[in-house]
Design a protein that fits this description.
A hairpin with a 2-residue loop joins strand 1 and strand 2. The chain is mainly α and about 130 residues long. It is built from six helices and two strands; from the N terminus they run H-H-H-H-H-E-E-H. It has a two-stranded antiparallel sheet. The chain has a domain of about 80 residues: Glutaredoxin. Helix 3 runs antiparallel to helix 4.
Length: about 130
Amino acid sequence: MAEYPDEIRLILKNYPYRYRDYSHLAAESLLAAGDQGKYWEMHDIMIKNSPTLDRESLIRYAGELKLDVKRFTSDLDSMKHKKQIEEDGNLAIAMDLYNTPTFFINGRKVIGNRPYKYLKKIIEEELAYVKK
């Protein structure tokens, strides 16, 4: 993103696994942390500590990130972002997506974790196509 600040945009959608114990709670946590400006920091700490994503651990991570823990906990417990997460999940189903992550780069579907160089090549191709 930093390499293309005025040329591309990143849109994130949540698609919690239905059969994972804490996947919906993890999505709620990311959005609650994002409300306090710490989406990526929460993302990183959750990846680092996965699969420890139970409620108590997520609240502890919020504290480590210096979030307003009372607000974070309230957002988690009220499932503040439930509707958004459900809408994102319905969109994924409608698009026949079953793998995360899945990227769309100007309509080109890229499934799974890919090296930066791989994604950059597609971005460069799409930017060149758009500029024609």
